[in-house]
Specification:
The complex is a heterodimer of chains A (510) and B (331).
Chain A: E1 21-30, E2 33-43, E3 48-52, H1 59-66, E4 74-79, E5 82-83, H2 89-94, E6 97-100, H3 112-116, H4 131-145, H5 160-171, E7 178-182, H6 190-205, E8 209-213, H7 217-223, E9 226-231, E10 234-240, H8 246-254, H9 258-261, E11 273-281, E12 289-294, E13 298-302, H10 309-316, E14 324-329, E15 332-333, H11 339-345, E16 347-350, H12 354-358, H13 365-370, H14 374-377, E17 378-379, E18 382-383, H15 385-398, H16 415-429, E19 433-437, H17 445-460, E20 464-469, H18 472-478, E21 481-486, E22 489-495, H19 501-509
Helix pairs in contact in A: 15-16, 16-17
Chain B: H1 3-11, H2 15-21, H3 23-41, H4 48-73, H5 81-99, H6 102-126, H7 131-150, E1 155-156, H8 162-169, E2 171-172, E3 176-177, H9 178-196, H10 198-208, H11 210-215, H12 220-246, E4 248-249, H13 257-267, H14 279-298, H15 303-330
Antiparallel strand pairs in B: 1-4, 2-3
Classes of the chains: A alpha/beta (510), B mainly alpha (331).
Chain lengths: 510, 331
């Protein structure tokens, strides 16, 4: 059955027993990474099914296959017994599969109402758009689900949380059989989240199959009927939520004890201050942030989305402007506040956004590695190519960077190897402080532990490592001290031995 | 979001302020200022005859500008239109000379335009080559082809059909040039399409954010492809009017025409980045530049100065627009 959320009561008979959507043996490979390996997922009509897993477990890939964004390499997708051939988002939408993606997928120049009906405009006589119906229906839709968004507003002018609600509403504007929500609460307030849950329960009551993708345990326990856990691209378990406890879910998601992930080799850090930040504020986010990081130490920063970690990372290396405060590296002030000075003093950033802020995708590995230290290879204004390549080769050997040659375009390397090249870039420059922002984002699990070992080694060689992360295991496994941020403020600094997940989360909530 | 925040949002700017914030209104104001200025300073400027003449002169850029703006809005560019103007005059004039039929001549010209549109659209949308490069290439190829074919001599319109000549000097009710009527009708039709037909909104969506458009189930490549075909066909119409005006197929016809059109389109607030702008804005941009050039000529200013002034206006207009947009985004 299919249900139009705007006009309930039509075709709402729930025929249980026949899966609304059945994915069998789904495989998906990307260059150097097996994203999904023989994954099964069955969604029942009228049920709320949670999909859980750590970052990189394969959740996003699976729903992108469902949505027609990626093709699958193997496996079948059936809807109520009929095999689907999904080649593009259009095919998937036609079958009534509506996906609310984590990233905002709206046209910012359009009004909210037009975005709601982007997928298919209601038309009147002769096929012209019925704008009046669009305005009325979107207002009615918001009314029905209790979201308070102005349908006439220009979408790009709305705060992110309202845009997210527009996304959610859009999935309900047309006939839907399966509604997928990918981390829908990441920028919603508690009030909005409870509204969302009401909507989700109503969808289920109308016979729609809901797939709720999240890594937040409390949400899943509150809303889900069934939970499927993925890990490293494989199906781990599918169980009714009643059979799970916090511990069993975490066990399924992580699959091993946190400590064993990170073989710590370095000794205890020294007490020489390498980086000192005092009273740092920025126009948009940071408020009076002060801390010090010692040579040989990994200082981990944790915070929920929007806490200001990336902003802090960019401010302390001189990339983003600050309004007040001081930053000093080895006692020397970062003045003027720019990255040129930062690099000269010995502080550099390993960005969270490798593709747009880190890599020169088309350039070969060796040029990517030597980018920040060309001056060191210059002989009378010309690059000493042989010396440059030799230096890069040393790093390739030391860090075991897997590349066919130094001349390979870096975009063809796996995420983990790209990250190693970028770390080499900074080490060649001779840094004292390295700021790493989400160092394992988009990196598959096998390579993760290598990056961890690398960070461990950097600290072991006397660098101060400031690590921004949203992943608890990463934080607890690697950091010597843990700093927690909430809404642009530093709310706690604790040593690793004192830290527990509860303490950290409490400080992160504020 | 709290309830309070939506309340202030709904209160929003007043109706009047919102109207003035609209690009088209600012442009209309500029146009009125230009016309008022020259009405007082230039002789014979403010007369029905001069006004309708300017409209007739503007009709080429208005017609081709529709296509140019549509391609811009889809997030691409088409600079092959000037050469296309010259090229389609060949089948047009040759067929008319052979058959004495306007219909066959126009049909041949449109068919030729269609082929160019398909080539531009295919290479850009399906083969994935940058549209600036593709249309730069077809621009050179067509211009070179015309030079080769004509041996740099004009091919005169020997058929001299009344219906064809009427395209250049005929006037509706003896007032409005037919060429302007054609341009205005096309403008209304396509402006309606852009705002009220699903396909028009798809063009805005594709130019605004192709990834989002794809997720919404649009065939991004097909939309862009069709935009190039529309652009080539409209440039063909402009080329037919031009050929009627000069009474021949000329190898230099439409030289630099693409840049005049691009200038007017950009002045009219259509963003090269895609997704932003309107055909109304484009039309106002064309009229502002046309009246400006007419008025400056009326003041006796040499053409060289008109170029300099036009250049400065375009940069100033886009810089102003950019500043305004940044203020909005910056909140």
């Amino acid at each position: 059955m299919s249900v139009d959320f705007l006009h309930p009561g039509e075709g709402t008979a729930v025929d249980t027993g026949v899966p609304a959507l059945e994915m069998r043996g789904i495989d998906k490979r990307f260059p150097g990474v097996v994203a999904l390996d023989n994954v099964d997922l069955t969604l029942e009509p009228g049920k709320i099914h949670a999909l859980m897993g750590e970052n990189g477990a394969g959740k996003s890939t699976l729903i992108k296959i469902m949505a027609g964004v990626y093709g699958k390499d193997a496996g079948t997708i059936r809807m109520r017994g009929r095999e689907l051939d999904i080649k593009s988002p259009r095919d998937s939408l036609k079958e009534g599969i509506k996906v609310v993606f984590q990233e905002i997928a709206l046209i910012s120049e359009f009004t909210v109402a037009e975005n709601i009906f982007l997928e298919g405009y209601p038309t009147g006589k002769g096929g012209s758009i019925d704008w009046r119906k669009i305005r009325a229906d979107s207002a009615a839709l918001f009314n029905r689900i209790g979201f308070n968004v102005d349908p006439a507003a220009r979408t790009g002018s709305l705060p992110v949380s309202q845009q997210q609600m527009v996304e959610i509403a859009r999935a309900l504007a047309h006939e839907a059989r399966v509604v997928v929500m990918d981390e829908p609460t990441s920028s919603l307030t508690p009030n909005e989240i409870s509204l969302l849950f009401t909507v989700i329960r109503r969808l289920a009551a109308l016979g729609i199959a809901v797939l709720y993708v999240s890594h937040k345990l409390d949400e899943v326990f509150e809303i889900a009927d069934t939970v499927t856990v993925l890990r490293d691209g494989r199906h781990v378990s599918t169980r009714p939520i009643g059979e799970h406890t916090n511990d069993t879910l975490i066990q399924d998601m992580i699959g091993r004890r946190i400590e064993s992930l990170f073989p710590r080799k370095r000794g205890t850090p020294g007490s020489k201050v390498a980086l000192s930040v005092q009273g740092l504020s920025t126009a948009k986010k940071l408020k009076d942030v002060s801390f010090e990081a010692n040579a040989g130490e990994v200082l981990g920063f944790f915070g929920l989305m929007g806490a200001g970690r990336t902003e802090l990372a960019k401010a302390i290396v001189g990339f983003d402007p600050i309004t007040s405060g001081t930053i000093s590296v080895d006692g020397r002030g970062l003045l003027p506040h720019d990255t040129h000075t930062g690099v000269r003093l010995g502080i550099g950033l390993l960005t969270e956004d490798r593709k747009s802020e880190g890599l020169m995708g088309e350039l070969p590995v060796y040029q990517n590695a030597s980018l920040a230290s060309l001056g060191a290879f210059a002989r009378m204004g010309f690059i000493d190519k042989a010396g440059e390549r030799k230096a890069v080769q040393d790093y390739v050997d030391r860090f075991r960077i897997k590349t066919p040659s130094l001349f390979q375009q870096i975009k063809n390397l796996s995420g983990g190897n790209q990250q190693k090249v970028l770390i080499s870039r900074w080490l060649m420059r001779g840094l004292k402080v390295i700021v790493v922002d989400e160092p394992t984002r988009g990196i598959d699990v096998g390579a993760k532990s290598e990056i961890f070992a690398l960070i461990d080694r950097l600290a072991g060689e006397g660098l101060a490592v400031v690590m921004m992360t949203s992943e608890m295991p990463e934080l607890l496994g690697l950091a010597d001290r843990i700093a927690v941020m909430c809404e642009g403020r530093l709310t706690a600094i604790m040593s690793r031995d004192d830290a527990t997940q509860e303490k950290i989360l409490n400080a992160a909530i504020g | 979001m709290s309830l309070a925040s939506t309340d202030t949002m709904k209160a929003g700017p007043s109706m009047l302020a919102r109207l003035f914030a609209r690009q088209e209104l600012a442009l209309l104001l500029c146009l009125i200022l230009v016309i008022a200025f020259f009405s007082f300073t230039a002789e014979n400027f403010f007369s029905v005859r001069n006004m309708t003449n300017v409209l007739g002169q503007a009709s080429l850029a208005l017609t081709a500008g529709i296509g140019c703006a549509i391609v811009f809005i889809s997030g691409e560019v088409d600079i092959s239109i000037g050469s296309l103007l010259a090229t389609i005059a060949l089948p047009l004039i040759i067929i008319m000379n052979d058959t004495n039929s306007l219909l066959l001549g126009v049909g041949g010209a449109l068919l030729f335009g269609l082929i160019i549109g398909v080539v531009n659209g295919y290479l850009t949308a399906y083969a994935g080559i940058n549209s600036l490069i593709v249309t730069l290439g077809t621009m050179f190829i067509m211009r070179g082809g015309v030079y080769l074919y004509t041996g740099q001599r004009a091919i005169p319109d020997d058929a001299a059909l009344d219906s064809f000549i009427a395209l250049s000097d005929g006037r509706l009710f003896n007032v409005v040039p037919y060429s302007a009527v054609i341009a205005i009708v096309l403008l209304v039709v396509f402006a309606y399409m852009m705002q009220h037909r699903p396909f028009g909104r798809q063009i805005y969506a594709v130019g605004g954010n192709p990834e989002v458009a794809r997720l919404a189930g649009y065939d991004v490549r097909r939309v862009k492809f069709i935009c190039f075909v529309i652009s080539a066909l409209l440039a063909t119409v402009a080329g037919i009017i031009l050929a009627a005006r000069v009474g021949s197929a000329q190898h230099t016809a439409g030289l630099n025409f693409e840049f005049q059109v691009v200038a007017a389109t950009v002045l009219g607030g259509v963003s090269l980045a895609g997704g932003i702008g309107s055909l109304t804005g484009m039309a106002l941009g064309v009229l502002i530049l046309q009246f400006l050039s007419n008025g400056l000529r009326g003041l006796g200013l040499p053409t060289e100065w008109q170029l300099v002034i036009t250049g400065m206006i375009i940069i100033a207009a886009v810089a102003f627009d950019e500043a305004k947009r940044r203020r909005i985004v910056g909140g």
